[in-house]
Amino acid sequence: MWLDYLIIAAYLVGTSALGYWLGRKQKDIQDFFLAGRNVPWWAISLSIVATETSTLTFIGAPALAYATDLKFLQLVVGYFVGRVVVSFLLIPSYFRGEIHTAYQLLRERFGARAKNLSSLLFMITRALADGVRLFATGLVLRALNPNLGDLWSVVIMGAVTIFYTLKGGMIAVVWTDIVQLVIYLAGAALAAYEIIQKVPGGWSEISGLASVDGKFAFLDFSWNPGFTYTFWSGVIGGAFLTTATHGTDQLMVQRYLSCNSRRGSQVALIVSGAIIFAQFALFLLIGTMLYAFYHHFPLAEPLQKTDEIFPRFIVSELPRGLSGVIIAAIFAAAMSTLSGSLNSLASTSVNDFYRPYFRPEAGPKHYLRVSRLFTFCWGVVLIGVAFLARRWGSVLEVGLTIASFTFGSILGVFLLAVLTRRAHELAAIAGMVAGLFVMLAVHLHAQIAWTWYVTIGAVTTFSVGMLMSWIWPNSPSPLGSKT
What span, in angstroms and rounded, lies between the C-alpha atoms of 62 and 70? Predict the structure, then answer.
């Protein structure tokens, strides 16, 4: 056990030291939030992959395949389609003018109120979804030491991530993302290898058992909107979801803006789609392998949640040292997302609210200090959300459902901004509000899978926005001072 703790401690200290060292030359918020706009495309691509691969993937994907099959991969196909749309529809708009956040595009097109509403929705959604991700990491630390408890597990992880993000800024986020990507992929590959070695008969037995029990099922062409993972909800819903998360979410847009060219950011995003598909296939196959393993070696104690299956295997079945490496890999997956989340939340807070409304004429050093203060404050918020997330259900689906609930409205208003010239600010805000109310009604009263949420919200927002623009075509946009 002490060897596992030593490896985990070495990883946490090393990551903190790297982040501190990378951020030592920062002078202003362009350095802190955009890494001087000089990061190569391949680094951005790997950072995108690391950022969207949180503990929800590392723990939740194997748990999902363990309990069901591989149909989640249909959603990942939609993820790739959405990346292509973002690359050619939205990224060019972000490289016109001096933009620091995605929502400043809405300010230029519609006005301050539309920008502010979108920014607020982003911050609420990101805080809730990434609080769930932080809690998921706490499950792993608790599995290693049940006496530690949820709260201390979350606090330890949150504190380390806050430290190196606060000190290092975006340059630390990107380059530690790459280190963490290598660590968690190596950890996942090692875990898969160990499972194959431990199952009697190896891969032949795993594949045979999985085939008989339908664990390799991949395609479902059902049109039932209540089914979560079908070909149509995957390709259509997944494309809308990724267009929203990768095209309008500051967590991702901030990476494109940090790239050294527009074309580089487009290539980075599309390449990341191929990597993500291979990565999800690996994590889902780990869940199938765990199904075969526990078929031969049944659990001594029942699971409280299916999400515990991979952490239980790591702690109980892997040799000391190797389990520490894989737990460090899970931490790497979590910290890569959380660090980017903290930086993007601070960026939105400073650039969309503090700077224009409170201290518009302050100097670079002041904004840099305030940016670090916001980073710390958002870290505390995420820790609080993580503590509340203990009773919210499956971590993978809860995290994605939270994001899907509001991102439809945000995507809809961005589509109004880039696809139409007729829409005005009043119409855009009406569309967003309508999208949110429709999503609330769908979530509470309709038997519709969360994979359709972004599609429904975006179509509603866009349609109501266009309708309002036709009803009041010459609106003076009274809400729209461009602050």
Answer: 10
